[in-house]
């Protein structure tokens, strides 16, 4: 659906050229939830803004549904933006309009719909985001989560086929974040809407994205399916964003710290899918006399897919350890010796 | 102080004249200053219709008009006023200099009020594919309404004190009364009463302005 090819963006600030994006190549499929993650200042905000040309790229092509949008004239750009929804970190609602007025605003301004049609659509959108009771309130009377729901309803009112989320949950507390993410995922599934989101939180990516690109200093440094990038990060920036387990790895390899206590072989186990809920360790223990100690572990889900990641210490002879690894291989458990 | 010396009919008459001068010049000030302020805002840097050249010219003209002391403007404007409405005296004669004196001031206030609107709101409208004129009239102005009312209140009060000043060149109203009776005929009572009436009028204006701002504030 979206092909970004060789995209560059440079700014002039006080006569100096500043590169915000370089050599960006991305493909985003129809109906996909695609995440772009990076630290602040990495260029992710600039990147998502090029998808509706709030930012004009300096070079490169952005092809959406077969059309290069960077060549669009004014009129075509208005049309493109009308079928592209966008939600924001700070919601950006109109304070002078009611909730219903905010949702109606993009419909009214296209001039394409009659009053009755618009009222029906507004009611439908309020229902969709769970704010049916709040249509006549003003944004100032709503909580942050409710405001973002209004933002989502407003963005979807015009039947978009693409939704851009600019740090949409960064101003919300963790519980509200989860509720908003569930709503977005639900919308993605029910309407087949393509969603592109940017965030600095790995948690957001893990909860709803199918694929992810990691951006650093204006370049995409790593991209792929979320499970792949999340469980086997390759680039240093990705590793530090996934962090947690890496902090422990460092401690483990520190001979003065935790490293001193570990006598066996430190190993990281990673597994994905149904195997997560199977009694692997007891099975392995039955095969090999090697002693396995769990040092740290996570069992959770990536989108709806269960996964586990364990840091274990395996103590035994070379043959015993080898037998353990063979058992892991049989269960398709990825194992990596940390040295 | 002997209040029996005061001709209350004169005071009434002068109060109405002051109100008429303030009212009519406020009307024209808003009619000219509001579009000018909007234009200043939208043509400024990084705004919807950025036009550096136009902004610099408009901004310069506004600054020049604002730097002329009002008393000088009153005198300089006399021939222009005569040309426009046939006389430079009375209530009508005071309106053109009042409007020229305050419209640039009001335009600046409007520009500042619009600048206070969250940039993100404008960006959201652009992202929805809303045309620029709809963004200005359908989103920006309604969002700015409380601020615009506050700016209008400030301007109305400035106009009222300027209107009193126009008494110097025969402008009519409370200022005229104060100068002719209170100053030139040494009737301190008239001076005191005219000032008292002005104080009451200003209080009323500010109070109603504040109430309106409150009524339209949705934050």
UniProtKB/TrEMBL annotation, chain A:
GO annotation, cellular component aspect: plasma membrane
InterPro entries: AAA+_ATPase, ABC_transporter-like_ATP-bd, ABC_transporter-like_CS, ACT-like_dom_sf, MetN_ABC, MetN_ABC_transporter-like, NIL_domain, P-loop_NTPase
Protein origin, superkingdom: Bacteria
Keywords recorded for this protein, A-Z: Amino-acid transport, ATP-binding, Cell membrane, Membrane, Nucleotide-binding, Translocase, Transport
Gene3D superfamilies per the UniProt record, alphabetical: 3.30.70.260, P-loop containing nucleotide triphosphate hydrolases
UniProt key word Endoplasmic reticulum: no
UniProt-listed GO biological process terms: amino acid transport
Listed GO MF terms: ATP binding; ATP hydrolysis activity
UniProt keyword Nuclease present: no
Domain ABC transporter: 2-242
Similarity annotation: Belongs to the ABC transporter superfamily.
Function: Part of the ABC transporter FtsEX involved in cellular division. Important for assembly or stability of the septal ring.
Record-given protein name: Cell division ATP-binding protein FtsE
Organism: Thauera phenolivorans
Automatic annotation (TrEMBL), chain B:
ABC transmembrane type-1 domain ranges (all copies): 15-206
Protease found in the keyword field: no
Membrane topology category: Multi-pass membrane protein
Keywords, alphabetical: Cell membrane, Membrane, Transmembrane, Transmembrane helix, Transport
GO biological process: D-methionine transmembrane transport
Membrane-spanning segments: 20-42, 54-82, 135-157, 163-183, 190-209
A Gene Ontology term for the protein's cellular component: plasma membrane
Compartments in which it is found: Cell membrane
Source organism superkingdom: Bacteria
The UniProt record lists the keyword Transmembrane: yes
PANTHER family: ABC TRANSPORTER PERMEASE, D-METHIONINE TRANSPORT SYSTEM PERMEASE PROTEIN METI-RELATED
Similarity comment text for this entry: Belongs to the binding-protein-dependent transport system permease family. CysTW subfamily.
Protein name, entry field: ABC transporter permease
Organism: Thauera phenolivorans
